[in-house]
Amino acid sequence: MIKFIYVILMNLFRAPYMIPKMRKEADHPERYTIEERYQLAKHCVRLMKMTGAIKTKAYGIENLPKEGGYMMYPNHQGKYDALGIIYTHKKPCSLVMDKAKSNTILVREFVDLLEGKRLDKKDVRQALTVINEVSEEVKNGKIYILFPEGGYEFNNRNKVYDFKAGSFKIALKTKAPIVPVALIDSYRVFNSAWLGPVTTQVHYLKPITYEEYKGMKTQEIAAMVKDRISEKISSVLESQKQG
Q1: Which site from 44, 106, 157, 232 is most exposed, i.e. has the minimal number of CB atoms within 10 Å?
Q2: Backbone phi, then psi, for 203, in 5-degree steps?
Q3: Residues 25, 22: Cα–Cα separation, whole Å
């Protein structure tokens, strides 16, 4: 949290220019392509990374499907998670976010710039509408990030919590590939007391095709995706220990 405040303060002088620019492009999708808006979002992440001495390394980019829409399901560690994925993901992607956390300054602009979806956890009907909208867009080739843990613990030290089965209804509706994403040390950026330089890792694991998960219940899919992410994180951390 200390670094988050530090990065915001150090970029305040850019706010009078960047926030209106983000707002303008988000409000006029007919004038700015999704590629242009995505590049602006990545530029904002780049500025934050420079200010906060943040490095993000991506692995497994070759695993990402070359064509069509797909769902990325990462573990959740903090405020930097989606930014790390967006920064390392070449194709434009969007995200599903908790509505209650999506309307603060800058976060609001990011969500709108990427045409993200705000999900109200307290409104079942609204949540179902969001699921249906995302499903249709994924069928039409869009790529989404959805955090199946639903939240995160402060300073969680790479622990992965249970995934919510409902998060995988979209995958079953679309029959699209599921891409598990393992995030390592992402919590150290904005969700710990650490203020020094930090390097995070984004691991794109091999996609789980519909042929592999068809016939499974959402609880089973959730457990499978969680296990693959947990195994990857454990493997990487163990390798780091061994030097």
Answers
A1: 157
A2: -110, 115
A3: 5
DSSP secondary-structure letter at 61? G
Which residue spans within the chain are E strands per DSSP? 54-59, 70-74, 94-98, 117-119, 143-145, 178-184, 198-204
- Beta carbons within 10 angstroms of residue 104's beta carbon: 9
Interatomic CA distance for residues 233 and 158, integer angstroms: 8
- Structural contact between residues 155 and 192, judged by C-beta atoms closer than 8 angstroms: yes
pLDDT for 82 equals: 97
Distance CA 88, CA 74 (A): 14
- Tens of pLDDT, residues 186-232: 999 999 988 899 999 999 999 999 999 999 999 999 999 999 999 99
Q: Please give the model's pTM, rounded to 2 decimal places.
A: 0.95
Q: Which long-range contacts (C-beta less than 8 Å, at least 24 apart) are formed by 21-30?
A: 22/109, 22/110, 22/112, 22/113, 23/109, 23/112, 25/113, 26/109, 26/112, 26/113, 27/112, 29/115
Average pLDDT over residues 139-157: 94
Q: Say if CB 176 and CB 69 are below 8 A apart.
A: yes
Most distant pair of Cα atoms in the chain: their distance:
53
